[in-house]
Write a structure and sequence with these properties.
The protein is mainly β. The chain has 2 domains: 59-202, no CATH class; 232-373, no CATH class. Helices cover 11% and strands 43% of the residues. A 6-stranded mixed sheet has the order 4-6-1-8-7-5, with no helix packed on it. Strands 13, 14, 16, 18, 19 and 20 form a 6-stranded antiparallel sheet that branches. The longest helix has 19 residues, at 3-21. The protein starts with a helix and ends with a strand. The relative contact order is 0.12.
Amino acid sequence: MNNHTKSIFALVMLAIILLGCAKPPSNNDAPKATQAPQSSQATPVSQVAPTPDNRVFNGLTFSGKIVNKQTNEWMNNRLVLLFLKSKEIARSVTSTGKLNVAFAGTVKYINGEMGVIDGLFTLRIPNTYELSMGNLGINPSQLSMVSAYDGDRSDWMKRDVIANWMDPFYEGDIRDFFIPSKNVKYTVVSLMGPVSDLPAEIQKPNSTEWRDGNRLVAVNPANANATPQPQSLQDGTVKIRDVKESITPFDPIRFPLNNCGGSANLVQRYTKTYIHQVIDETKVKLGVEIQPLTWLKVVAQVESRTGVEQNQVTTFDTTLTVAPGKKANYTIVRNQIWESGIADVPNGNNTISVAYRVLKREDYQVSAPDIQSCP
């Protein structure tokens, strides 16, 4: 091989070596595709639909604190009732205690860490309608209902509940909890005055009903779940005659109030709860038994005439006040107003005459205070 040929061969080999060492084009060197611009903002949380809490809870717990509206005292020994479809389903007597009901998954109590207080009541019932926070049919905040853990329920397996806290719940108040999804209403009723002063007829569990959303009626606990009598018993055939009204007086009640050392008004509350009764005087005086249907017709006619229901519960309530640095004497006079008469009830070709007596109302006359200076 001559020198010229050697030079050409060397150049060819050098070219081959250079081509083998050349860097291949990278992806970065390739033409880039145009991408659609992406938003830098995340979807707002408020626009994300919350997951409904559809857990079926073990029970419902209604709780609260009974307060005297005039004096702001937290009242013990007060009866609180819970009704569903007019039937009494729970009752509680207020006392000194601590509510052991916390928000679900926390150690924070639903009554704001109040600890031991006076006037506490709790009404615990099973979750008959299998309610969850997601199927109430209404925003839970409108009912002040929360998912909670009720540590005072005896069965620890059934402590997950829907609960609420009512504060203040004034003595004598009424509160409804309507559940649209089930078309049912729970009603909480607070009675005024010490439970020991209430009529004996309503002292036992299941001895009351809440009728038409406006009146409390005493019932026999043994018949609490019985089917109500039809209202059509008042058919206009019963005639009332020989009507008389009488007054039964009671001894005056005196209240001496001493506020000599006080710096604000001294307020004392007086309440009296009584029951309207329609009494069969034919049975009482003559010992004659009237057929139940006949007596029910008499009662229906008397109720229509007087505007009160058999065994309806009524409460009289007043407050007595004396200024600071003064003494005062109040007197309350109580009278019962009774109506008596004869009810004629058609019975085929005959007429049955039934003597009755009904407590129409109780009247209370509160005297003007006899104000006296302090020594």
